[in-house]
């Protein structure tokens, strides 16, 4: 892309920055009282979703590039983060531990329509949409079995396919 979004507190304040890939001077998109990380551009390039920590709670936020204030899309206690936009820009996939272990969820770009995609007793994280928007690939970590894997889930059927795994677990 022509622009890069990144989070930094290099001057002691937490900010989400945008810079042209040409290396021009960065500009502040969002300044917040808590940490920010994992920025993700919408397909249209008009919004950046990110993981934001405010008041000890980690949620998914979306900031429009038009200068409007960012919008908090999730509010569950615990961790909601690592957002990734669907190819059509209507939904975001993210990881959440709202039910105890980390699973993959989907939410509409306006914060409605929450859907739990994975259901298990291991940790699923770092979701990424397929180009057609019908599948999501993600990392799975099973701490009890000391095993990690990359898994893809079909959103229509819920069927999961393990693409690769490692029993050489490093924690």
Structure notes:
The protein is built from no helices and 15 strands. The protein has a 4-stranded antiparallel β-sheet with strand order 4-5-6-7, with no helix packed on it. Strands 8-9-10-11 form a 4-stranded antiparallel β-sheet, with no helix packed on it. The chain is mainly β. The termini are far apart.
Features:
171 residues, mainly beta, 4-stranded antiparallel β-sheet, 15 strands
Number of strands: 15
- The assigned structural class equals mainly beta
Strand fraction: over 45%
Radius of gyration: 16 Å
Order of helices and strands: EEEEEEEEEEEEEEE
- Oligomeric state: single chain
**What are the segments in which pLDDT stays under 50 over at least 5 consecutive residues?**
none
Span between N and C termini?
A: 33 Å
What is the share of helical residues? under 10%
**Globular, elongated, flat, extended or rod-shaped: what is the shape?**
globular
Overall pLDDT confidence: 92
Strand order of the largest sheet: 4-5-6-7
The number of distinct helices, counting runs of at least 4 residues, comes to 0
The largest sheet is: 4 strands, antiparallel
